[in-house]
Backbone:
């Protein structure tokens, strides 16, 4: 049915005043045949309605997560395992020019509470041109038997390539992955290994907490965003048996599960999303451990942040293209897992759709379609809440409340600036993703810049 | 003119209205009142001995040396009218009121404390100490030797270098750690963490939260493991995929029953309920999305995980962790873990029959109960 058919059959066509009273005289409208709406306008209307519906779904999803996190039953089924016959573990630390931070991570790992005969620390020096290799070798010499350094001299850049290269050298049944700038606490390894006693678990993810929060406004906004993403999004997915995402660091995979899905994939910028979905398709679960926290360094400049977001968006959208249809067809995943999995895959497509939605609304406005005020209002209200992976304002507020650190919630209005920057960065990444193959340019992996000074 | 002013006024008011939330934001940005990183637990507070170790460090720092000529009772509550002339030695023990027990078998409690039925002072014993019954010890108790608590006491926390014996109907509010054995009397209520470096025994009727010891006995000594000496038939699942065979892990998208006296090799994930018959051997781990029932005398090499409940019939033996998201029932004669390979049993609610042994940790997040 054309939208024009929804026009009122009667119209108020005259208003008159008699004896001080206002009377609205309503008469039957003359039978004017509706003007034919051009097909292109109808097509744009349908597209706009579809986009707004999708954005509404994402908005509801965020509300669903937040309400669950605030009022639902919280699942931490593995956190109590503190005594067990612990399996062998390899902690892999890909390091490309990480001289500023690698020593801190290694020092922290030396004092973790895990049987040392079952623990292998594997820093992987990935084509570094600074002192990373020397620092790693010094550590290996001072901790023989536990530190097994790997030096990768050549090959493709990127964490996925590094992990694929180093995994055959690892001895552990569980492979934990930390970024070089992460500082694990004493109990973290046991907490991350505990879920693997569950034979359904293929990967585990801990919570990442920024430690360079006070540096500037950007780091403070990223701290809020991370809190919303982990404290609310990830934990809610865990609570509801959905699809918590393996984030590529402060987490790990079971070697058996990894092998059963074909190992790390090298041709991806988001090995974390990639492995999350391949495990899901293979009948393995990823679990989130909200209380397994680890400090990380977040970008301190907007340029570094934009590059990071662009890399995430590109890699994530590759996974979207690869796994959306297989997930729909998968017989092992539940309906809710499929729904959440698809929505999670689409988070880096949504910014483009939000932008497209606004463009379409403007086009329709100038085309004379004034009856869109409702849908435009809906778009305006939900666009802010529909930016997918970037935790929305009420999620951040809930996370701040749950973390018990409430004064920082006052920065919430600034979050909109972070959203706008992310929106632009993601859309640029999508455009490059669409058009770079056409002009034959080679994709370049860009490492996130470190800001800590070497000790 | 008026219209123009009104328009400008509306614009200004609108801008102010939208700018309003930015005022506290700008203030927080400028003053950085909450700009520190969120606290990440680096010192492993969840470790069962965490509080005991902290208190141990406190004691080691402040306890007077044995040759110190301090009187046995050096601090009395200055607000206590029954002891107006009591000697006062502030900051002798980190500033906390305490009772030092040296040669006496019992702490020298004041008449007022005995009459009130409680003491709020720390009790520090250089050797063994016996704590009189029907009292509440609202501060920590430390003994370099054994601690023997009599009937119906309430303790905030106890640390002893040797054995701890608590009488029947005792209550521990926060934690207890024994360097040796711990013996908890019948019908006691144990909130918080209880740990022992030796054996821990709970008498019937106890309620508990978190227990940890190399050897934990619930109630009476268990009899020998029940097992029927017969050949077990291999249980196999039809239609296994190549991936399942390679990973030695089978996914079952329905409820499943494993017949008695079966042997199953590999890991099993069941999306419904699982019923394991008696006298089976499972050489792997099990996960169920429904309830899990384990028949009498079954032996499981790996772990048991259930999204719902786990019921272990009598005389089962398990080597891996036992984790349920609702309830665990453990019948008489079950053994969880082994001394060289301790394990964890965890669920919101755990009910244990008398005659059960666990090696490692038993952690009931809401309530654990030893049936009498």
Residues:
């Amino acid at each position: 049915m054309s939208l024009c058919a929804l026009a009122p059959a009667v119209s108020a066509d005259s208003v008159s005043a008699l004896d001080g009273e206002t009377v609205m005289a309503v008469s039957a409208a003359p039978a004017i045949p509706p003007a034919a709406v051009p097909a292109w306008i109808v097509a744009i209307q349908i597209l706009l309605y579809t986009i707004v519906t999708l954005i509404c779904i994402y908005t509801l999803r965020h509300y669903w997560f937040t309400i669950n996190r605030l009022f639902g039953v919280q699942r931490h089924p593995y956190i109590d395992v503190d005594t067990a016959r612990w399996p062998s573990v390899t902690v892999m630390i890909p390091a490309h020019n990480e001289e500023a931070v690698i020593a801190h991570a290694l020092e922290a790992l030396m004092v973790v509470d895990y049987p040392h005969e079952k623990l292998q620390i594997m820093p992987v020096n990935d084509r570094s041109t600074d002192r990373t290799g020397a620092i790693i070798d010094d550590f290996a010499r001072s901790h023989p038997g536990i530190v097994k350094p790997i030096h990768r001299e050549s090959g493709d850049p990127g964490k996925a390539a590094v992990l694929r290269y180093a995994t055959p050298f690892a001895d552990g049944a569980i492979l934990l992955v930390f970024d070089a700038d992460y500082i694990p606490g004493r109990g973290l390894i046991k907490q991350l290994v505990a879920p693997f006693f569950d034979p359904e678990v293929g990967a585990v993810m801990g919570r990442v907490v920024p430690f360079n929060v006070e540096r500037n406004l950007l780091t403070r906004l990223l701290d809020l965003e991370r809190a919303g993403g982990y404290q609310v999004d990830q934990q809610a997915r865990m609570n509801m048996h959905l699809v918590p995402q393996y984030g590529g660091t402060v987490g790990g995979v079971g070697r058996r599960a990894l092998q059963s899905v074909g190992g790390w994939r090298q041709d991806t910028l988001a090995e974390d999303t990639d492995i999350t979905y391949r495990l899901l398709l293979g009948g393995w679960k990823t679990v989130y451990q909200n209380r397994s926290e680890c400090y990380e360094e977040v970008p301190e400049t907007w340029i570094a942040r934009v590059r990071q977001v662009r890399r995430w968006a590109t890699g994530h959208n590759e996974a979207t293209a690869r796994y959306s249809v297989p997930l729909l067809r998968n017989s092992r995943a539940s309906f809710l897992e499929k729904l959440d999995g698809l929505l999670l895959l689409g988070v880096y497509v949504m910014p483009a759709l939000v932008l497209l939605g606004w463009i379409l609304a403007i086009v329709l406005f100038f085309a004379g379609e004034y009856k869109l005020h409702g849908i435009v209002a809906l778009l305006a209200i939900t666009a802010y809440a529909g930016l997918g992976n970037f935790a929305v304002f009420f999620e951040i507020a809930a996370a701040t409340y749950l973390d018990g650190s409430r004064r920082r919630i006052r920065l919430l209005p600034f979050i909109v600036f972070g959203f706008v920057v992310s929106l632009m960065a993601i859309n640029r990444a999508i455009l490059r993703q669409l058009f770079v193959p056409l002009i034959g340019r080679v994709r370049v992996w860009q490492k996130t810049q470190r800001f800590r000074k070497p000790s | 003119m008026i219209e123009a002013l009104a328009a400008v006024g509306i614009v200004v008011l609108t801008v102010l209205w939208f700018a309003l939330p930015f005022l506290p934001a700008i203030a927080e940005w400028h003053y950085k009142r909450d700009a520190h990183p969120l606290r990440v637990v680096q010192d492993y507070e969840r470790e069962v001995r965490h509080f005991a170790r902290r208190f141990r460090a406190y004691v080691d720092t402040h306890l007077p040396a044995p040759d110190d000529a301090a009187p046995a009772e050096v601090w009395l509550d200055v607000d206590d009218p029954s002891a107006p002339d009591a000697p006062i030695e502030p900051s002798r023990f980190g500033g906390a009121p305490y009772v030092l027990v040296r040669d006496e078998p019992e702490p020298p409690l004041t008449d007022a404390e005995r009459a009130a039925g409680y003491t709020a002072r720390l009790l520090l014993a250089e050797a063994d100490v016996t704590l009189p019954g029907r009292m509440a010890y609202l501060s920590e108790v430390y003994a370099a030797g054994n601690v023997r608590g009599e009937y119906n006491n309430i303790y905030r926390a106890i640390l002893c270098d040797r054995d701890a014996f608590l009488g029947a109907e005792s209550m521990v509010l926060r934690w207890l750690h024994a360097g040796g054995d711990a013996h908890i009397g019948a019908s006691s209520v144990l909130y918080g963490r209880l740990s022992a470096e030796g054996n821990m025994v709970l008498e019937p009727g106890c309620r508990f939260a978190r227990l940890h010891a190399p050897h934990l006995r619930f109630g009476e000594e268990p009899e020998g493991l029940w097992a029927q000496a017969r050949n077990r038939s291999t249980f196999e699942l039809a239609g296994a995929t190549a991936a399942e065979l390679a990973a030695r892990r089978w996914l079952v998208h329905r409820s499943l029953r494993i017949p008695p006296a079966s042997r199953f090799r590999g890991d099993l994930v069941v999306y419904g309920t699982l019923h394991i018959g008696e006298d089976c051997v499972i050489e792997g781990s099990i996960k169920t999305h429904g309830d899990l029932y384990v028949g009498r005398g079954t032996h499981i090499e790996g772990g048991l995980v259930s999204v719902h409940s786990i019921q272990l019939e009598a005389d089962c033996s398990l080597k891996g962790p036992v984790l349920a998201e609702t309830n665990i029932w453990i019948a008489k004669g079950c053994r969880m873990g082994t001394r060289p390979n301790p394990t964890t049993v965890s669920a919101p609610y755990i009910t244990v029959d008398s005659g059960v042994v666990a090696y490692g940790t038993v952690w009931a997040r809401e309530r654990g109960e030893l049936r009498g």
Observations:
- Residues 2-19 of chain B form the longest helix (18 residues).
- Chain B touches chain A through 56 residues (CB under 8 Å).
- Residues 125 and 143 of chain B are 4 Å apart (CA to CA).
- The radius of gyration of chain B is 29 Å.
